[in-house]
Amino acid sequence: MSRHFADITCTPGVRATQQRYLGAPLPTPAGNPEAILGDRERAFIAARDSAYLATVGEGGWPHVQHRGGPPGFLRVIDERTLAFADYGGNRQFVSIGNLAGQPKAALILMDYPNRRRLKLLAEITVLPADEADPTLVAAVGLPGAPPTERVMVLHIAAFDWNCSQHITPRYSARELAALDIPSTPSHP
């Protein structure tokens, strides 16, 4: 676990639970307490075609929503900022509504074939597309997609590479095609 991630997530309750189950709280890792995305993180993020976004509503309940697009839909703006275009979906606006009351969120990005997972904690600013910087709107827009309704700007607070022990390898149709494996079984 990285220091900036531990500083946020290892609350007194977490430390007490570590004490109970491990006999002592885990030490806080050394290193930079600030979340600065390095080359490894930026390359990993740019290659993802999917992410899970977790927010918390006013009632305290978590909500997890999938976000996706072509690889790179989640744009690296700089070493501390990401952004993506938010398009109309089921029109429930749960994530957007939750972020209006509590802008803190978590993202999980998966690389199933290589059994890698990156967790991100961020404060998210939701910008209506017609009020956002046109350069930013253009930077996050996806080719062939409808006009962007909103831009989600993620100000990274922490990130951590997670244990791969229990990640089951899975492959998308695109990944199977790159391996020259049909994505659907052939029938005689």
Question: What can you see in these coordinates?
Answer:
This protein folds into 2 domains: 1-32, no CATH class; 35-163, Electron Transport, Fmn-binding Protein, Chain A (Pnp Oxidase, Chain A, Roll), CATH 2.30.110.10. It contains 6 helices and 7 strands; from the N terminus they run H-H-H-E-E-E-E-H-E-E-H-E-H. Helices cover 26% and strands 30% of the residues. The longest helix is centred in the N-terminal third of the chain and has 11 residues, at 12-22. It has helices spanning 3-9, 12-22, 39-47, 94-101, 134-140, 173-178, and strands at 50-56, 62-68, 75-78, 81-86, 104-111, 116-128, 150-161. With 188 residues, it is of the alpha+beta class. Strand 5 (104-111) and strand 6 form a beta hairpin. The chain has a 7-stranded antiparallel β-sheet.
The CATH architecture of the largest domain can be named as Roll
Low-confidence stretches: none
Rg over CA atoms: 18 Å
| Major sheet characteristics | 7 strands, antiparallel
- What's the level 1 CATH class of the largest domain? Mainly Beta
Q: What is the spatial order of strands in the main beta sheet?
A: 2-1-5-6-7-4-3
Helix content: 25-40%
Number of separate helices = 6
> Total strand count, please?
7
CATH topology of the largest domain: Pnp Oxidase, Chain A
Mean pLDDT: 89
**N-to-C CA distance:** 50 Å
Please report which band the strand proportion falls in: under 5%, 5-15%, 15-25%, 25-35%, 35-45% or over 45%: 25-35%
Helix and strand string, N-terminal first? HHHEEEEHEEHEH
